[in-house]
Amino acid sequence: MSKNPKIDALSKFEWTIMNELWELENASARDIIDALPENSQRAYTTIQTYLERLVEKGYLSKKKAGNVNLYQTVIPRDEIVDGATNSFIERVFQGSGSSLAAYLIKNKQLRKDDLEQIRQILEEGDDDA
Amino acid sequence: MSKNPKIDALSKFEWTIMNELWELENASARDIIDALPENSQRAYTTIQTYLERLVEKGYLSKKKAGNVNLYQTVIPRDEIVDGATNSFIERVFQGSGSSLAAYLIKNKQLRKDDLEQIRQILEEGDDDA
DNA sequence: ATTCGTCTCCTACTTATGTAGTAATTTAGC
DNA sequence: GCTAAATTACTACATAAGTAGGAGACGAAT
Questions:
Q1: Segment (H or E) for B70
Q2: HSE (side-chain half, CA atoms, 13 Å) at B16
Q3: What's the confidence (pLDDT) of residue B39?
Q4: Domain B1-92 has CATH 1.10.10.10
Q5: Most buried of the four, A104, B24, B28, B78, by CB within 10 Å?
Q6: Hey, are the CB atoms on B98 and A81 less than 8 Å from each other?
Q7: Domain segments of chain B: what residues?
Q8: Mind listing the pLDDT tens digit for each residue in B50-107?
Q9: Count of CB atoms within 10 A of residue B110's CB?
């Protein structure tokens, strides 16, 4: 049932944690810490707090394995990415996805090789989409 | 000098306000309220609070015109959009702009005609980028 | 001049986010 | 069996974000 969390509601550092969880699947606080890059390190208990809060919010499930708590994502990453992206587009590009795309292409985000990559996706997806 | 605000730090409703300001240029609290859509209405003083906080943060300047405060954006929208987009890509698409682009293309955001539009941009920008 | 509406300024309260300490518990070594 | 390291559970505190009320000033209408 997982109290239907408001999609998009992840904060910056929550994203950091969640990204690890989606990667690791079923990890302990220690696992998370070990996986986090230097600049994302926090006190052990800080990580625990995030984990617990994410459980409360319905993003993670928790189960005990011996004495250790293991956490696991409840919602597929795609779904969260989708919500976050929609919300972002809404705010920043007044709801226009193509506007974002145009921005990406025109501004420094995409380089020559990226364009090539995207063109390839276009080539493939275009005919049967 | 405007105390160099952390780019990207705008919250959801701050975006709503700022979007109006970029549109209106130099507006009063009343102007903002009148411009906001139904579902973004708040108490008059709530809007005022947002405006004042945005001034503190260095996003807006304020000047009195008679008895009324007029607010004006300090930073061009493009710049803020840029910071927000970078930060978003960092979090959600692990820093890969092309990954976002691919997502946009593959998932519901872009339809056939959008693709055409983007392809045109690609055609043009490709050779001299 | 008194009143009404509007606006500013200041204050306040709630929930969320960021961050972490402490006490108690567990377990792995000696 | 006792100690050290790791972990959990609980508590705490600061700042940000969200939302708004009240007091007082000011200008317009009467």
A1: strand B68-73
A2: 17
A3: 94
A4: yes
A5: A104
A6: no
A7: 1-92, 97-129
A8: 999 999 999 999 999 999 999 999 999 999 999 999 999 999 998 888 888 888 877 7
A9: 21
Cα within 13 Å of Cα(B109), Cβ side: 29
Helices (H) and strands (E) in chain B, counts: 6, 2
Burial letters B87-105, b for 16+ CB under 10 A, else e: bbbebbbeebbbebbbbbb
For residue B120, pLDDT beyond 60: yes
Closest CA to B107 of A103, A86, A105: A86
CA distance B8 to B28: 24
In this prediction, residue B27 carries a pLDDT of: 97
Q: What are phi and psi of B70, to 5 degrees?
A: -110, 140
Which residue bears the tokens 């070990």?
A: A34
Say which residue, B79 or A108, is predicted with more confidence: B79
Place of tokens 């506007």: A99
- Using one digit for the tens of pLDDT, what is the confidence trace for A48-101? 999 999 999 999 999 999 889 999 999 999 999 999 999 999 999 988 888 888
B106 CA, D17 C1': separation in Å? 35
Nearest to B68 by CA among B14, B40, B32: B32
> Under 8 Å CB-to-CB from B124, ≥6 apart: which residues?
none
Question: What are the residues with a C-beta under 7 Å from any atom of nucleic chain C?
Answer: A 9, 11-14, 42-43, 45-46, 48-50, 66-67; B 28-30, 44-45, 48-49, 64, 67-69
- For tokens 């006190």, what's the residue? A43
Residue written as tokens 């920008």?
B125
